[in-house]
Every structure is written in C-alpha cells, then in structure tokens.
Design brief:
The protein is an all-alpha fold. It is 64% helix and 0% strand. The chain is built from 16 helices and no strands. Helix 6 packs parallel to helix 8 and helix 14 packs antiparallel against helix 15. The two termini are 16 Å apart.
Length: 570
C-alpha cells in the first residue's frame, strides 16, 4: 500500500528545523483559531452544560408527579418547566451536541485538514452561545410564568392575541438564532463532505457515519428553514400584533392551528435528522468491535438515505387536528421505520458472520468494550422506540399524541438513543480527538445508569398513555391509578440524570483535567482514515494519507504492511 508523497520542500523544511510538537485540542480553548477539533469540542462542552440544566428541570417535574396531589410545583410552574426542559434538551443539547461530534470527526474521516469554511463554523458556535443565552434568560424576563406551551409551543402562545410579555420573544428569538446557526453548520458540513474528501474516497467508500451526517445535514437544510420562518412569524405576531396565528377566537383573523402544522413540518424531520447520526455511529462501531466489515454496506447506505427521504412524510402524524389526513400521515410515519428495521437486520448479520469467523470467545472481548456496551444498551432503547412508534402509527383511529404515549415514544425513539450515542461517540473518538481515553470504569457505570434509567423512565410513560394520562398533566388524584407508573418514571429520571452527571464528570476529569490514559494512534483497530492520523493530532490532521482503495483504508493498511506504509508520527 503506497502513501501520497510529501512535497520535497516540506521534507527539506523538516530537516532544517525540528518539527513543532502538536497539541491536542481541549474543551477550554482554541475555538478562535478555527480548528475544527477545538470548535467541535467547544460545541460538545456547551451541549453538556445544557444537558445538566435540562436534567435538573426534568427532575423537578418528575418530583411533582411522583405522588398524587403534589404541591411541589403549581400548574403554571410545571407547564413552564415543561417548555424550558424541552427547549434546553432539544435545541441546546441534542442539536449542538451532534453538530459538535460531526465537526470533530467528519474532516478526519474524509482525510481533510479542515472544514470547508472554518471561520463560518466558529461563528455558528458563537451564534449558538447567543441563542442559548436568550433562551436561558427567558425564565427571568417579564411574562415568563405564562409560557406554558411545551417544547412545541402549541398553546397558548400561537393563539394569544392579547398574550404579551418579553419572555415569549426572548424564547422565540433564542430558538431562531440556534436554528440559524444549525443551518449554517449543516451547510458547512455538507460542503466539506462533498468537496474535501481524500483522493479515492468515492461516495460508495465514504464512512457510514460521514454518510449519515451528510444525509442528516441535507435534512436539516430542508427542514430547519421552515422552523426559522415559523419562529419569525410568531415573533412578528407578538411584537407587532400582525395576527398571523393569533385572533383564533376573535377579530384578528389569524389561524392558530397553522402554527402546529408549520412547526411539525420542520420539527418532525429534524428529530429524524438527530437519529440519523445515531444509526451511522452504530453502523460504524459494530464492524470495528466485531472485527469485520458490515454485512451489506450498500444496503446500509441505502437505508440511511431512505430514512432521510421518508422523514418528511410523517409530520402530520404529530398534528392532532388533521383527522382526515391521519391515515396518510400514519402510513408515512410507519414507512420510515422500515429502513431502520433493515439496519437492525444488517447489524445482526454482521455480528453473526463475525461470530462464525472469529468464534464467540474472541468476539466477547470487543463486545465488553465501553463503546460497544453503549451500542448494545442503545439498541435495546431504540428497539422499544421502534415498537412504540409502530403502534402509534398503526393506531390511526386513536390519537396517541395527546397522552403520555407520546412522551414515551419520543424519548425512546429520538431523545434517549441520541443521548446514549453521544456518550458512545465520546468514548470511541475521544481518544483520537483529545488524546486521552475516558475512564472505562466510569464508562461502564454510565452505560448501566443511562440505559437502565432510560428504560425505567420512559417505558412507564407508555403505560400511562394506555391509562389515558394527558400529556401536560401537572397533578392527579390518588384514584386515577397513575401513581405507580409516575413513581417509576421519577426513579428512572433520577437514575438517568445520575448517569449523565457521571458522563460529564468523566469528560471533565479525563479530558479537561487530562487525567485520562494517554491514547495510541489506533486504540480500537479502526477501519477508516481517522485512525491513520498521528497523535496528538496536528492542526492539519494528517502528515500523510494512505492511498484509499476501499471503504476500509486503515484496515487495508494493516492487512498489507510494508515499510512505506508507516505513518509519520504513529
């Protein structure tokens, strides 16, 4: 296997003076220098901060519902916390976290030295900070107690012709700014993947995680502008009295129901765009830890692409007031689950073939690594989410979107798997990007807490849905029969929050304080280009690139070693 040649001038320069020792990026600095590794790390650090904030709000809500007739929170306080918890968790944790992971990893996977527009990405980071500051300030602004709409801002904001207060405008503007930053970051990632791939890295040879980021970015570029436009219309409605949505009950002439349709037209594909990197990550990790390529790579790429396309066909299933079209949208929500199920089959075939090739005993070592343990836990949660989503789509005659079934379905399908996958990505790629391993002992504790907490917190929500507990219920009577499931949810939320706290502490201690074990260039025997780079990573990522002749260039390099194949710095 040959390596691309380094220009003679560079060799002479190296002979003339000692090479500078590269410094691995950290969470604490470097973003101003536009290094994608530092910018991505800062994105992830910001997201983890909001994960903790959203988790605290969730614990307060679950404390209110842990027992009947509770007075921990008033109805208004509970509904306000419901809104802020959703805003923090979706717009300030999941969205920036996946942008951060993709920003760190994608240029390395495609053999690029940088993003297509490095300064643009740094700007999107600061825009996210500004948007997060606006949303964070909302609870302390006049009118904050009247925000009782949930993360979808359904009621009473869109229909409130006389609903005033600066808090609504802070919240709407903050979300719009974060979404605008996500659009710019997605565009930058898409252009980077299309234009800056290494020679020989064709589309068919693209790493599956990078492919999933490409599809996710395209979905974001189509879906998020709709959400931004809706937020802009809502701001104009409240600030200038335009009555685009308001006036539902009076003379304004607006149609409040239009808000729900516009929101879910953008938000439903956005949720699937957050799941796509999860599917790409699992497709990347399983082959590495079972030590063989994925069973059917072409079908895996096709399934990921199909999820991106079909994500736009089920948005109406989330809109309560579309009874005539419910069958059509229910079919759309059901069809998008088929390619996800095909990926499950592909992953299982990969494991089965690896067991035949290597034997179960050899396979067990890879399965017990922390990233693979995360994958196993993630798949159990995602399988439950697939089942809940299928039931919700098939039950077209009864809406599961106004009771707690929706809470369980959305958390099992979208939010919990994405959170688990972010932690798995940190354990898998963290050693490469940060030069330090996260603690494996703490990692195994994280897996147990996060996976167990997800099941304990969100499976009982499905039970509450079957018991017809409305989604925004802030209190209930003892004779409603909802106490046991709510108590289980409260316990699960506490376990999940503890797992998230352990993960954040692991990142801080191992990476920020640099207490983690120093990493080797290829600690997992990976398959893709990032594992051929030296460590610590220089700013330009690669001193030399191996010739790309397949989808697994690092695997090819190890399979046919020659003296010329040695990578500088390895």
């Amino acid at each position: 296997m040959s390596l691309t040649e380094v220009p003679t001038e560079e060799i002479q320069a190296e002979d003339a003076a000692p090479a500078a020792v590269p410094v691995a990026p950290s969470l604490g600095g470097g973003a101003a220098a536009n290094d994608h590794k530092a910018v991505g790390s800062a994105y992830l650090g910001l997201a983890l901060l909001f994960l903790l904030v959203g988790g605290v709000l969730a614990l307060l809500m679950r404390a209110q519902l842990a027992s009947p007739d509770s007075t921990v929170l008033t109805d208004q306080e509970y509904r306000s916390l419901f809104t802020f918890h959703g805003a923090f968790s979706v717009f300030l944790f999941l969205l920036p976290a996946w942008i951060g992971v993709a920003t760190m990893v994608v240029p390395l996977q495609i053999g690029a030295s940088r993003l297509a527009f490095p300064r643009l990405h740094t700007m999107t980071l600061w825009l996210t900070v500004v948007g997060g500051a606006l949303i964070t300030a909302t609870p302390f602004i006049r009118g904050a107690k009247r925000i009782i709409s949930g993360w979808a801002l359904n009621r009473p904001i869109p229909e409130g012709a006389n609903f005033r207060g600066d808090a609504v405008e802070f919240l709407v503007l903050g979300i719009a700014v974060v979404l605008a930053a996500a659009v710019a970051a997605s565009a930058n990632l898409v252009v980077t993947i299309i234009k800056l791939r290494a020679p020989g890295l064709t589309t068919r040879r693209m790493p599956l995680f990078t492919w999933s980021v490409l599809i996710s970015g395209m979905v974001m570029l189509l879906a998020l502008p709709v959400l931004i436009a809706a937020m802009g219309m809502l701001y104009v409605d409240h600030h200038y009295g335009a009555h685009l949505f308001s006036g539902f009950t009076g003379s304004g002439g607006g149609v409040a129901a239009m808000w729900q349709r516009m929101f879910w037209f953008g938000a439903y594909p956005m949720l699937w765009a957050l799941v796509l990197p999860v599917l790409g990550l699992v497709s990347e990790l399983i082959p590495v830890f079972v030590r063989r390529p994925i069973a059917d790579r072409a079908k895996a790429m096709g399934a990921l692409g199909a999820v991106g396309v079909l994500a736009f066909f089920g948005w109406g299933s989330e809109v309560v007031n579309l009874p005539r079209s419910r069958l059509f949208f229910a079919a759309g929500a059901l069809v998008v689950l088929a390619p996800v199920a095909s990926l499950f089959v592909n992953w299982l075939l990969t494991v089965r073939e690896a067991a035949k090739e290597h034997g179960a005993d050899e396979l067990r070592g890879g399965l017990m690594s922390v990233p693979m343990m995360y994958v196993v836990g993630l798949l159990t949660v995602l399988a439950a989410g697939l089942g809940a989503s299928a039931v919700s789509a098939l039950a077209a005659g009864r809406s599961y979107h106004t009771d707690y079934w929706q809470v369980g379905q959305q958390h099992l399908m979208y939010f919990a798997p994405a959170t688990l996958a972010i932690a798995a990505a940190a354990h898998f790629w963290g050693p490469k990007v940060w030069g330090r391993h996260l603690s494996p002992m703490m990692g195994k504790l994280e897996v147990l807490l996060l996976t167990g907490g997800a099941h304990l917190a969100f499976l009982p929500a499905l039970v509450l849905g079957l018991q017809d507990m409305p989604i925004h219920t802030s209190s209930y009577r003892a004779d409603d029969g909802w106490r046991a499931a709510n108590l289980a949810m409260a316990a699960g939320a506490g376990v999940f929050a503890l797992g998230a706290l352990v993960f954040v502490l692991n990142v801080l201690v191992s990476v920020a304080l640099r207490r983690g074990r120093a990493a080797a260039p290829d600690p997992w025997s990976g398959h893709t280009l990032e594992w051929t780079a030296p460590i610590p990573l220089p700013r330009h990522n690669f001193d030399r690139l191996p010739e790309v002749r397949s989808a697994t260039p690092a695997l090819d390099l190890r399979a046919a070693p020659t003296p010329d194949d040695e990578i500088v710095g390895a």
